[in-house]
Amino acid sequence: MTMNILVVDDEELARQRIQSLLQENSEYKICAEAENGAEALMMVERHQPDLILLDISMPVMDGLEVAKHLSGMPNPPAVIFTTAYGEYALEAFSTKATGYLMKPIRQEQLLKSLQQARSLNRAQRSKVLDDNEVTGAGRKHICARMRGNLELIPIEDVYYFQADQKYVTVRHKQGEVIIEESLKSLETDLADKFIRIHRNALVAKSRITGLAKNNIGRVQVKIEKIDDQLEVSRRHVAEIRRFVRNR
């Protein structure tokens, strides 16, 4: 059975090289290409590839962040990272991707990695990505589905996240969307940029302008440019007051 492959690299010559290495091998078919991580996620939705040859260092969204978003998909493809920079190896392996290739990629190494990936079924690939340990240190986007399409929201545009049962509302500059990520995972990934004010809410640190009390004496955060009223729980009041005072 032919394995469908998505090739993701911001350099056209690199994509062409992979094409040339596989062009005479009927076991593998390049079903699509992408030149950055954001485009890669769109191509995954559109073409449902079995595997991605994924460059790590790219504009817009790097390969490690792509792997993070893939982990939330119901049937993720296998991932083989490609890069010219050896210092990414440790972080790439922490994602438990099925392979890691250094550029310039040699045909023998490529075919060996593809064969290893072929041995995993979809359920096994999903488990590999579910077990990944990619942190949110380099995460720059929130990935949401809108009317069947993927929408990428820059982290810097987000005002707050608010949980309601299994869903989380993302309030951002252009409006709001609902995602299925947990508030806990968002807090872990984005701890340097967001602060918890309530068991159901994280607010962007840079967006908090002060505190106020509502008409029944409950403390609320004031958020720049929007009038949304988010309550600070008693458990978090002291921490939020310290944060506002010391910023």
Automatic annotation (TrEMBL):
Residue stretches making up the HTH LytTR-type domain: 142-246
GO biological process, one term: regulation of DNA-templated transcription
Domain Response regulatory intervals: 4-118
Keywords (A to Z) from UniProt: DNA-binding, Phosphoprotein, Two-component regulatory system
Residue numbers of 4-aspartylphosphate PTMs: 55
Gene Ontology MF terms in the entry: phosphorelay response regulator activity; transcription cis-regulatory region binding
Pfam families in the cross-refs: LytTR (PF04397), Response_reg (PF00072)
A GO term from the CC aspect: protein-DNA complex
Family matches, as InterPro entries: CheY-like_superfamily (IPR011006), LytTR_DNA-bd_dom (IPR007492), Sig_transdc_resp-reg_receiver (IPR001789), WalR-like (IPR039420)
PANTHER family the UniProt entry points to: REGULATOR OF RPOS (PTHR48111), TRANSCRIPTIONAL REGULATORY PROTEIN BTSR (PTHR48111:SF3)
Protein name as annotated: LytTR family two component transcriptional regulator
